[in-house]
Design a protein that fits this description.
Elements: H1 6-10, H2 17-44, H3 46-50, H4 56-87, H5 90-108, H6 114-117, H7 120-148, H8 156-185, H9 187-194, H10 196-200, H11 202-213, H12 220-227, H13 235-239, H14 244-274, H15 280-308, H16 311-332, H17 337-363, H18 371-388, H19 390-398, H20 405-428
Helix pairs in contact: 2-4, 2-5, 2-7, 2-8, 2-11, 2-14, 4-5, 4-7, 4-18, 4-19, 5-7, 5-11, 7-8, 7-18, 8-9, 8-15, 8-17, 14-15, 14-16, 14-17, 14-18, 14-19, 14-20, 15-17, 16-17, 16-20, 19-20
Length: about 450
């Protein structure tokens, strides 16, 4: 089968960079809405609905294990969508990933619980979580590439940051809908069946997202790959030519951000309500407010990265996350609402320093003709090692005693690994501190 021409991929006149950035933000927001909605439900609802015969601790572990399944599926989605994204284009793969996530989330809202169909309830939950994971695996790297590859000169980090804003935006949207539905129905009705409503709303939200995404044209970088006849048969294998030292250091540099974010966004909801007695709505509102800070500060940090370079910013942000992780649970464990808000707000202010540019750092590791495959490999592997296991590991470290000391050491260790990886990466990769204009398709770019 011959490759479509660049004109066929472009779909007409080129899309304005601003419209593309907004479209990628809208799409990632909806995908992360679905993904975080599951995380919130896993922390607060799913142990009762799908694992009622287990003890509270075992039920929470089982619910978080289904959360982890989605992360395990993400590399599969990243590899499949990355392969076709490098061979047939970014746009088509991003449309399919959005549909998969929406269908998976909508069907989760329709699954009968354990009391109705027994063993098959958690089985169906896991299967649909796999669908979600595959869909998000295709979204993460692809949306960053689509926006970054449309970026005007000198704004590569800023535009790559728009899809990153979808992470906190999706969390805010998921928590608000979850909270409003809970408030309108009351705890008993919401726990029994009302939790399904936010999942069923995914169908409507994804339909809106598709309308926006279908209006965006193909990436200029991919069109240049087509013009130069640079499409390769196995882009993932070609991406390994970057070299395992650089691939490994890039992975280490980004792994902590995912772990810290999921402890902050998901684990604290379960731990705070069940172990410390915080009110459910108070915690959801506090995490949501912190996510608003996260969202609002990303454009600030990406503009700084474009103007002054992202190396020092990323290393400094990695050190700041490590320091705050050492303080986070001592503040949170006081049971004082004001200090809990301070702990969560600190996360919302510090996490975006590294999160906002990590997508661009990963993408600029690879030349354009294998960028989707290579970026997906790093991003999704880091998500498994970091975020996918973090809530489950944190719950296990609590044990029966309920002490958060082990969780603190776990986060500090992860942050130290990423800080060391970032320092080593930036020392071993030659060149300037920030990515410039789009390089030739087969030229490995700089960090």
């Amino acid at each position: 089968m011959s490759n479509p021409s660049p004109e066929e991929h472009a779909g007409g006149a080129a899309t304005a960079p601003g419209r593309t950035a907004v479209a990628t933000l809208a799409g990632t927001t909806l995908e992360w809405y679905d993904f975080f909605l599951y995380g919130t439900a896993a922390a607060l609802i799913f142990d009762k609905q799908f694992f009622p015969s287990l003890s509270p601790t075992a039920g929470t572990l089982a619910a978080f294990s289904t959360l982890a399944v989605g992360f395990v599926a993400r590399p599969l989605g990243g590899l499949v969508f990355g392969h076709f994204g490098d061979r047939i284009g970014r746009k088509a793969t991003l449309v399919v990933s959005l549909v998969m996530m929406g269908v998976g989330s909508t069907l989760i809202g329709a699954i009968p619980n354990y009391d109705s169909i027994g063993f098959w309830a958690p089985v169906l939950l896991v299967l649909l979580r796999i669908v979600q994971g595959i869909g998000l695996g295709g979204e993460g790297a692809g949306a960053t590439l689509m926006s970054m590859e449309h970026a005007p000169k000198g704004k590569r980090n800023l535009y790559a940051g728009f899809p990153q804003m979808g992470t906190p935006a999706g969390l805010v949207l998921a928590n608000i809908i979850f909270l409003v539905t809970n408030s309108l129905m009351g705890d008993n009705a919401f726990t029994a069946w009302g939790w399904r409503i936010p999942f069923l709303l995914s169908f409507v939200l994804v339909a809106v997202g598709l309308v926006i995404r279908l209006r965006v044209t193909e990436s200029p970088s991919f069109n240049r790959v087509l013009e130069q006849d640079d499409v390769v048969r196995f882009p993932l294998a070609e991406s390994f030519k970057v070299g395992f030292p650089r691939l490994g250091l890039t992975l280490l540099a980004v792994v902590a951000n995912s772990a810290v974010a999921y402890v902050f966004m998901v684990f604290t909801l379960s731990y705070g309500t069940k172990n410390l007695g915080y009110d459910r709505q108070f915690l959801i509102l506090s995490v949501t407010a912190a996510a608003v800070l996260w969202f609002a500060t990303i454009p600030v940090w990406t503009k700084i990265a474009d103007r002054y370079g992202r190396r020092a910013m990323f290393v400094g942000g990695s050190a700041a996350i490590l320091a705050w992780c050492a303080l986070f649970f001592p503040l949170f464990d006081t049971g004082n609402g004001v200090l809990a808000v301070v702990a969560l707000a600190g996360m919302g202010l510090i996490i975006p320093v590294t999160h906002c540019v990590q997508g661009a750092i990963i993408a600029d590791t690879f030349p354009a003709h294998v960028r989707y495959s290579g970026s997906s490999l790093i991003l999704q592997t880091g998500a498994i090692l970091g975020g996918g296991l973090a809530p489950m590991i944190s719950t296990a470290l609590l044990g029966d005693g309920g002490s958060s000391t082990g969780v603190t050491w776990y986060l500090v260790t992860m942050c130290a690994i990423s800080l060391g990886g970032a320092v080593a990466l930036f020392r071993t990769v030659p060149g300037g501190p920030a990515a410039g204009n789009e390089p030739p398709a087969r030229t490995l770019t700089q960090v």
